[in-house]
Amino acid sequence: MLDRWAPMKRNVGNRRACPCLAGRRAAPYDPPMPSLQLSYDYDSCVKSSEKVSWKLDDVMPTGARLDFSQPFLPGSLAARGELAFLSPTEQRMLNQIMGNAYLNLFAFVEEYILVTMINHSHAEVFGDHHAIRALSRFADEEVKHQHLFSRYRQAFARDFGHDVEVLDSAAQVAGVILGKTPIAVMLVTYHIEIMTQAHYTECVKDDRSIDPFFVKLLHHHWLEESQHARIDALELDKLVSDASPAQIETGVQDYLDLIGAFDGLLLQQAEMDARSLATASGRSFDAAQTAAIVTAQHAGYRHTFLVYGMKNASFAEALKKISPDGFARVTERAASLS
Amino acid sequence: MIDLTDPAVAKLVSVLGREKATIVLDDCMQKAGIREIASSDDRYRLGCELISRGGLLEAIGRAIKIQAILHGARET
Which of A73, A102, A313, B36 is most open to solvent, judged by the fewest CB atoms within 10 Å of its CB? Predict the structure, then answer.
């Protein structure tokens, strides 16, 4: 078990009160015990991050063209349910529309994650320099990912040949998320980062039927997100280690509220996808067909962005340690969304 | 008696040294009416008091304040 307060102790000597401070009016501070029993620390995250770091221009040079001959998302992350009334070309188009929205959703959430990591880094100023370094790299990489996905979306808009709609109120959503308790914000962040890893390793990495360039983007995203998930766990551990049971329960409830809010956004994206497909295919879908597309897309987004994170083994294990009751509530909600 | 591993106190000590930190801490606690540094709310108030002093103390105070907020301090 690592002692997260070690850097502070190194700064200030051992835990015995300094003679010059003896007799002062302050209560002893009991250093919190880690709750998640993590096997890594900030320094190891920085070292791993340095090994896998990449440059934006190497992964997606400006002006790179996209190939639309193959689907972008593996079937396990795409629409769920039969849409037999769509031709194979229309089904591939819908997959590519969802792939574009998938990357946009990451760029979307990275807006609030960036703010969060800058805040957490600021909190460590004059404290743990390993943590500052890890958190600062994290923030820098999140901005890089936003640039990557922005370039991708520009290429998609240029090469797809039709207008597609995507959610565009990232700052507004960041405001809603950041209005929740820090424990909830970090739970959502850990959920997203660990889910991203699972998407790549379980669904994307070995799928030879999807566009290799899309796989390459997700590979590079995953390389850095792997460290981010570890840093999230370290930050979450820090937050819960001195939180009261009531603060933890509020954090879990806020997390579930945010899951509900995300679900609403995903439904909006599913409705946008149906409109985008109609535009791209030049076909008018009747009300039943439109509803079927929206339902299939929404189910796909729910599975990919919500259930995948909520049911992730590492996330579930962490949640169980923080709050067994919260774990049960999250499990129940995941089942209702499946 | 103050435990130097308190995250807010540790920031002050790491920047100012024990002797100067003792003086600043004593003064800030007195001005802000803080009897002990035992909770996030205490650290939040200490951070606010340090911010009001400007310069390096303001920088330390901002870090203490944001850390306190992340750990559940109620903003007042």
Answer: A313
SS3 category, B51? helix
Q: Does B75 touch chain A (CB under 8 A)?
A: no
A63: helix, strand or coil: coil
| Residue of chain A whose alpha carbon sits nearest to that of B36 | A26
d(CA A94, CA A30): 56
Report the pLDDT averaged over residues A298-319: 96
Return the higher-pLDDT residue of A28 and A247.
Answer: A247
- CB contact (8 A) between residue B3 and residue A28: yes
A337-A219-A116 Cα angle (round to 5) = 65
Angle made by CA atoms A131, A227, A304, in degrees to the nearest 5 = 130
- Compute and round to an integer the Cα radius of gyration of chain B: 11
Provide the token pair at A315. Answer: 């996330």
Touching check for B58 and chain A: CB below 8 Å? no
Contacts of A135 in chain B (CB under 8 A): none
- The pLDDT mean for chain A works out to 88
What sign has the CA pseudo-torsion A174, A177, A179, A184? negative
How many CA atoms does the CB half-sphere of A222 hold within 13 Å?
A: 17
Average pLDDT value for residue range A228-240 = 96
Chain A residues with CB inside 8 Å of B9's CB?
12, 26, 29
Of A71, A83, A69, which is closest to residue A298 (Cα–Cα)?
A: A83
Which are the contacts of A43, defined by CB distance < 8 A and separation ≥ 6? A130, A134
**CA distance to partner chain B, nearest, from residue A67 (Å):** 45
CB spacing of B63 vs A127 below 8 angstroms? yes
Please indicate if any CB of chain A lies within 8 Å of the CB of B41.
no
Residue with tokens 């998302």: A73
Residue A53 has what pLDDT?
95
Residue A16 — pLDDT band, cuts 50, 70, 90? very low
Phi/psi for B8 (5° steps) reads -70, -45
